[in-house]
Amino acid sequence: MKRNSFWVASFTASVIIAIVLLVAGSPTVTANDQPSAANAEVKIDNFVFGPPTITVPVGATVTWTNKDDIPHTSVSTEGVFKSKVLDTDEKFIYTFTKAGTYSYYCTIHPKMTGKVVVQ
Ligand SMILES: [Cu+2]
After folding, report:
1. For residue 54, how far is its CA from the centre of ligand 1 (angstroms)?
2. Ligand 1 centre and the CA of 114: distance in Å?
3. Which of 20, 25, 42, 55 is most buried per CB count within 10 Å?
4. How many whole angstroms from 24 Cα to the centroid of ligand 1?
5. Three-state secondary structure of 5-60
6. What is the pTM of this model?
7. Ligand 1 centroid, distance to 59 Cα (angstroms)
């Protein structure tokens, strides 16, 4: 009987150790893992930024592409970003690292306006 309870006790201990090792060895999900930021595209076509307003998460990269045969720019009203003059099919890329609403316009055609909402 004494021998029997020894085996029960050691078996129980082994199971507990195995569970502890399993839990400790399982891959941990760290709080630093962030979902990859959604990127967005704005097409400049027929003197219009399309879509005129986009909403993206913090960290998103926005790409403007000029689809017109006429040069355009994408310049932040508050001076946050400023593209060069974009010829046909040229791109301007900017990554938004802070939340906020960013209005922009084309300096060549100031009536062309758009907005990036970063949240
Ligand atoms: Cu323009």
Report:
1. 18
2. 11
3. 42
4. 59
5. HHHHHHHHHHHHHHHHHHHHHCCCCCCCCCCCCCCEEEEEECCEEECCEEEECCCC
6. 0.70
7. 26
Confidence of residue 19 (pLDDT cuts 50, 70, 90): very low
**Domain residue limits, the chain:** 40-118
pLDDT of 14? 58
pLDDT tens digits along 99-115 = 999 999 999 999 999 99
Q: Which CATH architecture has domain 40-118?
A: Sandwich (2.60)
Residue type, position 22, single letter? L
Measure 50 CA to ligand 1 centroid, in angstroms: 13
Counting every residue, how long is the chain?
119
- Cα 79 to averaged position of ligand 1 atoms, centre (Å): 17
Residue 88 is which amino acid? T
Better-predicted residue by pLDDT, 9 or 31: 9
